[in-house]
Each structure stands twice: as structure tokens, then as C-alpha cells.
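Input.
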Amino acid sequence: MSSALDVARHHLDVRLAREQRERRLPAVTAALVRRGEIVWSAAVGTVDGRAGGAAATADTQFRIGSITKTMVGVGVLRLVADGSVALTDPIRRHLPELDPALDGVTVTALLGHSSGLFAETTGPWWERSPGVSWEELLPSIRLTHDPGRRFHYSNVGFAVLGRLVEQVRGRRWDAVLADEVLAPLGMARTTYSAVSPAAQGLGVHPYADLRHVEPEQDTGAMAPAGQLWSTVDDLSRWATFLAAGDPRVLDDELRTAMQVPGVVWDTPGQPWTRAYGLGLDVFNRDGKRYVGHGGSMPGFQAVVAVDPATGTGVSLLTSSTSGPSPALGWDLLDLLETHAPEAPEPWHTEATDHLDLVGEWFWGPRPFVISARPGDVLDLGAPGGGRGSRFAPSGDGTWVGQDDYWAGETLRVIGRGTPGVHLDLGSFRLTRTPYSPDGDIPGGVDESGWHA
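Output.
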């Protein structure tokens, strides 16, 4: 008898095979991961796109393009973790050879594509041309608009971040990533240049079943923007790291900071579906957040995306300049959820020392509700919507907001155990009854109380 996962795998195999044929992809490989385990992977096509050629497999390398940026981003945050660099540092503090006009560009702005730098180089099309040196790239590192003002994707900006890693560590950025990031995660098949077996990058004629071999260049100083090669197995490990973390690579505080939307990829007239954190795309699918990145280089298209809340993610690699349909990765995730949904963890009781704090509180006349969650977390919500947050204990009898409006703000309980108990939240007062006279409300309350 087939299991639900077997049924899902059949549908996934069919969906991938149809994509390969309908989009005329020379080779395509894909994998789905759940909480660190690859639950499905498949490959269709041949490494050179010709009938009878060597079949693509899950171990076939493809160029991953801008997914490289996510790994460079982690490399930069490792510099932050060890105190060598601060996110607020002006980049010229570390790279003084840059134009003084870049004085306002910070490390954060570079990681989040809000630096104001031009998207591409001023010289030849860098993805298809022999790479230039850092000194030759310097004239391309220039502003198109004021730093920090808006989202503007910049490949040049990530070349700068790669150089930052090199200057601080004293060796090539890719060697730093190999030792400090890839090796601990077991990503041995993620490399600077192709290591066999690897797919050939191809363009497919739009109106005939013909192939065109694309150039494979060492992109030199621009390499941190899109040089690396990888496999779906390795990208599944990467997705798992983004969702679950690994303290050998990056502490959880910085890893989760990467996933906070900093600037929105704005399309006028449409709700946002894509934002950028620190070196990571943040995708909004009907309220569910995924993090990851897309990637393209001549002859290749790639995607990695993972739901940090569940650890369910997709990796997808193709050897075609035109690539798969944008919906393919999402369709694979949806098919898994449709045919083999993951059962939630069972609910169970859990002791709390904060029963006296749960229930209704009032900010003036507005009701809020506090619920106790595992780990001594307090969940503040507003019926009908409003300013809420999860608050984690700080160890000194206060709580700190973890998200939404109150992120980073302190929640204090004043007069706990007394009739006048109230909450101090960013100087606001929350009381057990609306405008409680015992709540030390700034400005006082009407002495006549509530009346008709």
C-alpha cells in the first residue's frame, strides 16, 4: 500500500517531468527538505541537453548565480559576530579606496540592497566576460541614488561585500566561505568552479529544439555576486541551515536578523510579495514567509526557499538561460503539502509561573490579551487587531518584544501581586480595568470615573 509520501513523490516526479518538457530545459534537478531531511529529489534531462548524454542526478553541479549572495551575507555576518565589523559601519571604514561619495553607505545597506549603488558594472556585461580585478572594478562602484532611501538590487554591492570579507580575513572570500561556512554544513559540492559531474550551461532556441553553449567565465572581482556552483543536496543543507541554524556557522540572533524584511521590492499597485533582509530574499506568500534567493547566470537558473517556521524548503537547479516557470518551486512545495501534509506536534500542558499575568489588560479603553507560551514567553495580542508582540524573558524580571510593533521594547510588571498591578510597555500603561485609578496612568484619570 502506497504511503501519502509515495503518492506525493509521484505527483512531484510528474510535475518536474512536465516542466522539463514544456519549458525545454536541458536538465533540471529539484529537492524538497523537511526539518533537515530530504523527502524527495529528482532529476530530468542530460548534462549537455542531448539525447543519449549523461543523465543529470542530484549530485550534478549547476551554477547557482545570486544564491552565492546568501552565503557571502553569512560570511559578512560572521565578521559582525566576532566584532571585526559592525552593521552600522560605513563601508569606507574598511575599504578606504572607495569613492568618498560612498561615505553614507553602510554594511547594512549593502547587505539589504539599499546602498544606492548601481546594479551592474560600467564595463562589458560582467556575467559573460572575463572577470576584472578589484582595482578595475572601482570605477563601477558608484551611486545611482541616495543610500538607504529605497530598494535597488545591486550586484556591484555584493562584490564590495566579498572584498570586505577578503580584507578582514586576509584571504580570498571563497576560501573563507569554504572553511567557515560550507565545510561545517557538509556542503562539499559547493565550489567556486565546476567540479564534475556538472551540467553545461545552455541557451535554448525560442522556436527550434536547438541548443547554444553559453560562456562559463571566472567573474573575478564580481564573483561574490554570483560565481558559485552547487547541487540540490547541498542547497537542501543550506535551506536547513537558514531555517534551523548551526552555531558553528552563525549564532541564531544574527541568522534570524537576516530574515527580517528591511526594504520592500515594491511593485506599484500590488501587495508586496518580496522584500530583502540581510543577504536574503524574504518571500510573502499569502502571509506565509519564506526566505532564500533566486539565481541566474548564462545557461543557468536556480532557486532555494525555505519556511523558517517549519523547515520545509525547495531547491531547484536548471541548465537553461530562459529557465523554468517562476511558479515551479512553489508548485512543488504545494504538491508536497497537498498530498503529504506534515502533522503538527501534539499539544500538551506546560507549567507557567505567570498565570497572574494572563488574560485581559487595557490600554486606556482598548482591550489587550496576554497568553502564556512555552519558555516563559508572553504573547500580547489585541482582539480585532492592533499593536501586539511576543515577549521573551530577559532574565531580570522583564520581557523584551520579539517582533511586530514592540520588537526590542521592554515590558515591565509594576506592583505585581497588589491590587494596583499594571504593565509598563514603552512608557504606556496597561491596567486590569479600563483607566484603573491604581494604574499610575500619566495625566491621571477622571476622578468621577466612568459615568453616563
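Residues 4-22 form the longest helix (19 residues).
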